[in-house]
Amino acid sequence: MTILTISRVAARTSVLGPGVRAVIWVHGCPLRCAGCIAPEDLPFDGGDRRAIDELAAWLTGLPADVTGVTFSGGEPMAQAAELAELTALIRRERDWSVMSYTGFTLGHLRRHGTPGQHALLAALDVLVDGPYLAARHADLRWRASDNQRVHLLTDRHPAPARDTSAGIEVHAGTSDVMWIGVPPVPGFRDHFAQAMRDRGVLLDGAPEPTNAEETDDVG
Ligand code: SF4
Protein backbone atom coordinates (compact mmCIF):
# COMPACT_ATOMS: atom_id res chain seq x y z
CA MET A 1 0.00 0.00 0.00
CA THR A 2 1.52 3.30 -1.08
CA ILE A 3 1.24 6.11 1.45
CA LEU A 4 1.27 9.85 0.81
CA THR A 5 1.86 12.17 3.74
CA ILE A 6 -0.30 15.24 3.38
CA SER A 7 -1.18 18.36 5.32
CA ARG A 8 -4.65 19.01 3.96
CA VAL A 9 -6.87 18.84 0.89
CA ALA A 10 -9.47 20.98 -0.84
CA ALA A 11 -12.21 19.57 -3.03
CA ARG A 12 -12.39 22.56 -5.36
CA THR A 13 -10.68 25.81 -6.18
CA SER A 14 -10.32 28.08 -9.19
CA VAL A 15 -7.17 29.88 -8.11
CA LEU A 16 -4.41 27.25 -8.17
CA GLY A 17 -4.26 26.27 -11.81
CA PRO A 18 -6.49 26.10 -14.88
CA GLY A 19 -10.22 25.51 -14.41
CA VAL A 20 -11.81 24.01 -11.32
CA ARG A 21 -9.41 21.72 -9.44
CA ALA A 22 -8.91 19.79 -6.24
CA VAL A 23 -5.77 20.46 -4.23
CA ILE A 24 -3.52 18.21 -2.16
CA TRP A 25 -0.96 19.93 0.07
CA VAL A 26 1.77 17.41 0.83
CA HIS A 27 3.65 17.46 4.12
CA GLY A 28 7.40 18.00 4.31
CA CYS A 29 9.88 20.08 2.35
CA PRO A 30 13.70 19.94 2.29
CA LEU A 31 13.97 23.63 1.36
CA ARG A 32 13.67 26.62 3.68
CA CYS A 33 12.64 29.64 1.62
CA ALA A 34 12.61 32.73 3.84
CA GLY A 35 8.98 33.85 4.05
CA CYS A 36 7.46 30.42 3.24
CA ILE A 37 3.73 30.70 3.83
CA ALA A 38 3.38 27.27 5.44
CA PRO A 39 6.31 26.72 7.83
CA GLU A 40 4.23 24.26 9.85
CA ASP A 41 4.16 21.96 6.79
CA LEU A 42 7.95 21.80 6.31
CA PRO A 43 9.05 19.09 8.81
CA PHE A 44 9.02 15.55 7.48
CA ASP A 45 7.60 14.22 10.73
CA GLY A 46 3.92 14.60 11.39
CA GLY A 47 1.32 15.08 8.73
CA ASP A 48 -1.60 12.88 7.76
CA ARG A 49 -0.58 9.53 6.26
CA ARG A 50 -3.10 8.55 3.58
CA ALA A 51 -3.26 5.56 1.24
CA ILE A 52 -3.14 6.76 -2.35
CA ASP A 53 -5.94 4.48 -3.45
CA GLU A 54 -8.14 6.16 -0.83
CA LEU A 55 -7.12 9.60 -2.13
CA ALA A 56 -7.70 8.49 -5.73
CA ALA A 57 -11.19 7.26 -4.87
CA TRP A 58 -12.00 10.59 -3.20
CA LEU A 59 -10.67 12.61 -6.15
CA THR A 60 -12.37 10.58 -8.87
CA GLY A 61 -15.64 10.82 -6.97
CA LEU A 62 -15.68 14.61 -7.08
CA PRO A 63 -18.32 16.38 -9.22
CA ALA A 64 -17.84 16.43 -12.99
CA ASP A 65 -16.96 20.13 -13.12
CA VAL A 66 -13.77 19.39 -11.17
CA THR A 67 -11.36 18.55 -13.97
CA GLY A 68 -7.95 18.45 -12.36
CA VAL A 69 -5.78 18.35 -9.27
CA THR A 70 -2.92 20.52 -8.08
CA PHE A 71 -0.15 19.23 -5.83
CA SER A 72 1.21 21.89 -3.50
CA GLY A 73 2.94 21.80 -0.17
CA GLY A 74 5.33 21.25 1.37
CA GLU A 75 7.39 19.93 -1.53
CA PRO A 76 5.60 17.63 -3.95
CA MET A 77 8.88 16.46 -5.48
CA ALA A 78 9.84 15.00 -2.08
CA GLN A 79 7.01 12.48 -2.61
CA ALA A 80 7.15 12.40 -6.38
CA ALA A 81 6.94 8.64 -6.90
CA GLU A 82 3.82 8.48 -4.73
CA LEU A 83 2.23 11.41 -6.60
CA ALA A 84 3.07 9.84 -9.96
CA GLU A 85 1.33 6.67 -8.79
CA LEU A 86 -1.65 8.67 -7.57
CA THR A 87 -1.85 10.45 -10.93
CA ALA A 88 -1.91 7.11 -12.76
CA LEU A 89 -4.75 5.90 -10.52
CA ILE A 90 -6.76 9.07 -11.16
CA ARG A 91 -6.31 8.85 -14.92
CA ARG A 92 -7.61 5.29 -15.00
CA GLU A 93 -10.97 6.84 -14.14
CA ARG A 94 -10.86 10.45 -15.35
CA ASP A 95 -8.83 12.33 -17.95
CA TRP A 96 -7.70 14.96 -15.49
CA SER A 97 -5.29 17.84 -15.72
CA VAL A 98 -2.48 17.51 -13.17
CA MET A 99 -0.37 20.42 -11.96
CA SER A 100 2.37 20.62 -9.35
CA TYR A 101 4.39 23.19 -7.52
CA THR A 102 8.06 22.63 -6.71
CA GLY A 103 10.78 24.66 -5.06
CA PHE A 104 13.32 23.07 -7.42
CA THR A 105 13.79 24.29 -10.97
CA LEU A 106 12.63 22.20 -13.90
CA GLY A 107 16.19 22.16 -15.26
CA HIS A 108 17.54 20.81 -11.97
CA LEU A 109 14.89 18.10 -11.84
CA ARG A 110 15.55 17.06 -15.44
CA ARG A 111 19.30 16.85 -14.87
CA HIS A 112 19.45 15.51 -11.33
CA GLY A 113 15.99 14.17 -10.56
CA THR A 114 15.23 10.74 -9.16
CA PRO A 115 13.27 8.18 -11.20
CA GLY A 116 10.18 9.13 -9.19
CA GLN A 117 10.64 12.81 -9.99
CA HIS A 118 11.07 12.02 -13.67
CA ALA A 119 7.91 9.90 -13.56
CA LEU A 120 5.94 12.76 -12.02
CA LEU A 121 7.32 15.29 -14.52
CA ALA A 122 6.23 12.98 -17.35
CA ALA A 123 2.69 12.91 -15.94
CA LEU A 124 2.25 16.64 -15.34
CA ASP A 125 0.42 19.11 -17.53
CA VAL A 126 1.64 22.17 -15.63
CA LEU A 127 4.62 22.75 -13.34
CA VAL A 128 5.27 25.92 -11.35
CA ASP A 129 8.93 25.80 -10.38
CA GLY A 130 11.56 27.58 -8.36
CA PRO A 131 11.99 28.64 -4.74
CA TYR A 132 10.04 31.52 -3.27
CA LEU A 133 12.18 34.66 -3.09
CA ALA A 134 10.53 37.18 -0.78
CA ALA A 135 12.48 40.10 -2.24
CA ARG A 136 10.94 39.29 -5.63
CA HIS A 137 7.33 38.89 -4.48
CA ALA A 138 5.06 39.95 -7.33
CA ASP A 139 1.43 39.92 -8.51
CA LEU A 140 1.58 36.88 -10.79
CA ARG A 141 -0.63 34.03 -12.03
CA TRP A 142 -0.36 31.00 -9.71
CA ARG A 143 3.05 32.00 -8.30
CA ALA A 144 4.42 34.36 -5.72
CA SER A 145 7.84 35.60 -6.87
CA ASP A 146 9.02 36.55 -10.32
CA ASN A 147 11.78 33.94 -10.49
CA GLN A 148 9.12 31.22 -10.48
CA ARG A 149 7.90 29.99 -13.85
CA VAL A 150 4.73 28.35 -15.18
CA HIS A 151 5.74 25.48 -17.49
CA LEU A 152 3.05 24.05 -19.75
CA LEU A 153 4.43 20.53 -20.17
CA THR A 154 1.63 19.31 -22.43
CA ASP A 155 -0.73 21.05 -24.84
CA ARG A 156 -3.76 20.49 -22.58
CA HIS A 157 -3.91 24.14 -21.49
CA PRO A 158 -3.23 27.39 -23.35
CA ALA A 159 -1.03 29.97 -21.66
CA PRO A 160 -3.05 32.02 -19.16
CA ALA A 161 -4.56 35.11 -20.78
CA ARG A 162 -3.51 37.30 -17.84
CA ASP A 163 -0.36 37.02 -15.78
CA THR A 164 -1.70 38.50 -12.57
CA SER A 165 -2.89 36.78 -9.39
CA ALA A 166 -5.91 34.52 -9.82
CA GLY A 167 -7.09 35.86 -6.45
CA ILE A 168 -7.78 34.40 -3.04
CA GLU A 169 -10.70 32.15 -2.12
CA VAL A 170 -12.00 31.90 1.45
CA HIS A 171 -13.66 28.59 2.25
CA ALA A 172 -15.83 28.52 5.37
CA GLY A 173 -16.83 25.14 6.78
CA THR A 174 -19.03 24.42 9.77
CA SER A 175 -16.05 24.57 12.14
CA ASP A 176 -13.16 26.02 10.20
CA VAL A 177 -12.10 28.70 7.73
CA MET A 178 -9.33 28.28 5.18
CA TRP A 179 -8.04 30.40 2.37
CA ILE A 180 -6.55 29.23 -0.93
CA GLY A 181 -4.49 31.10 -3.47
CA VAL A 182 -1.27 32.95 -4.14
CA PRO A 183 -1.44 36.39 -2.53
CA PRO A 184 -0.47 39.26 -4.85
CA VAL A 185 1.07 41.14 -1.92
CA PRO A 186 3.38 39.95 0.87
CA GLY A 187 2.08 39.60 4.40
CA PHE A 188 -1.39 38.40 3.44
CA ARG A 189 -1.40 35.41 5.80
CA ASP A 190 -0.69 37.47 8.90
CA HIS A 191 -3.19 40.18 7.90
CA PHE A 192 -5.91 37.64 7.20
CA ALA A 193 -5.25 35.72 10.43
CA GLN A 194 -5.43 38.98 12.39
CA ALA A 195 -8.67 40.01 10.65
CA MET A 196 -10.19 36.64 11.56
CA ARG A 197 -8.94 36.87 15.17
CA ASP A 198 -10.58 40.30 15.39
CA ARG A 199 -13.84 38.55 14.50
CA GLY A 200 -13.29 35.74 16.98
CA VAL A 201 -12.21 33.14 14.41
CA LEU A 202 -8.93 31.26 14.95
CA LEU A 203 -7.45 29.78 11.77
CA ASP A 204 -6.00 26.27 11.89
CA GLY A 205 -2.21 26.49 11.83
CA ALA A 206 -2.18 30.27 11.81
CA PRO A 207 0.94 31.72 13.42
CA GLU A 208 0.85 33.86 16.51
CA PRO A 209 0.84 37.61 15.79
CA THR A 210 4.20 38.59 14.39
CA ASN A 211 6.05 41.59 13.04
CA ALA A 212 7.55 39.51 10.25
CA GLU A 213 7.55 41.54 7.09
CA GLU A 214 6.85 38.82 4.56
CA THR A 215 5.20 35.48 5.10
CA ASP A 216 3.45 34.59 1.90
CA ASP A 217 4.05 31.96 -0.69
CA VAL A 218 2.62 28.86 -2.17
CA GLY A 219 5.38 26.46 -3.04
S1 SF4 B 1 8.05 28.09 -0.25
FE1 SF4 B 1 7.69 26.01 -1.01
S2 SF4 B 1 9.74 25.23 -1.56
FE2 SF4 B 1 10.06 27.02 -0.22
S3 SF4 B 1 10.23 26.21 1.88
FE3 SF4 B 1 8.04 26.71 1.53
S4 SF4 B 1 7.10 24.81 0.81
FE4 SF4 B 1 9.34 24.57 0.58
Automatic annotation (TrEMBL):
EC numbers on record: 1.97.1.4
Keyword Chloroplast in record: no
SUPFAM superfamilies reported in the protein's UniProt record: Radical SAM enzymes
Top-rank taxon, per record: Bacteria
MF terms in GO: [formate-C-acetyltransferase]-activating enzyme activity
Enzyme class of the recorded protein, top EC level: oxidoreductase
Cofactor: [4Fe-4S] cluster
UniProt keyword list: 4Fe-4S, Iron, Iron-sulfur, Metal-binding, Oxidoreductase, S-adenosyl-L-methionine
Name recorded for this polypeptide: Anaerobic ribonucleoside-triphosphate reductase activating protein
